[in-house]
Amino acid sequence: MYTKAFIPYRGYFSSPFSRWQGSLQSENAIELVAGTAKRWFAEKSFDPKMFDYLFLGKSITQRHTFYGAAWCAALMGNPDISGLLIAQACTTSVTAMNQAALGIENDLYANVCCLMTDRTSNGPHIIWPNPPGPGGQVVVEDWVMDNFNYDPWGQIPMVETAENVAKEAKITREEQDNITLLRYQQYQDSTKNNQAFQKYLSMTFYFSKKISQNVIFTLDATGTVYDVIFTPFGKQENSADLVIRQMLQEE
What we know:
By secondary structure, the protein is α+β, with helices and mostly antiparallel strands. The chain has helices at residues 29-44, 68-76, 92-105, 143-149, 158-169, 173-190, 192-201, 215-218, and strands at residues 5-6, 12-14, 18-19, 53-57, 83-86, 111-119, 125-128, 139-142, 240-250. The strands form two sheets. Strands 1, 2, 3, 4, 5, 6 and 9 form a seven-stranded mixed beta sheet that branches. A two-stranded antiparallel sheet has the order 7-8. Strand 4 (53-57), helix 2 and strand 5 (83-86) form a beta-alpha-beta unit. The longest helix has 18 residues, at 173-190.
């Protein structure tokens, strides 16, 4: 249990999810999160140089990801610190925060910035040279879609894992539909009063477009080649481009 690390009150922000292949599809995720953080620091009258380390969470590679956290730190206004890039798929954010808390707990840092960002849109199409291959044929990978569709250890797609979990835990289709509709209603509630709730947590410039009104219809649309029973396309989490920022401090 952590006894020193904590997230200070209002020391965080998040962007609503922006539906993939939408208005943020061509943004560089590191530039986006660093620029957003820099502007947020200015609005809060925070000095970005108060941080002594940065954890950057991002799973999908983009141009200049090679320089990762160090580049991000410089862009946000603190070129004097280093950092660590963490790529852990769906657990990237919680892993970054845990590593930051561990460092504070063990007196490695006093004030850590965690920036979590990603862009599933326009994922990279990677080519590796393969001279021993037949005719020197290259090895290729579509970073996003190939990994969505195949876990090299489990050897099945992500959505099939979700199906298996639902069966094992005896979670019914009706229960999942009810939760989906509840989340949709909660989203609608968050847009009331000129998006007051969203503005409480978010950077205004990066509000996402409204979610489709056809939620009840899309709950029955599979949109996939797999035999999906419990987690059809309309209920799957929207792949998204987003930025999240939190700071951890020593108490």
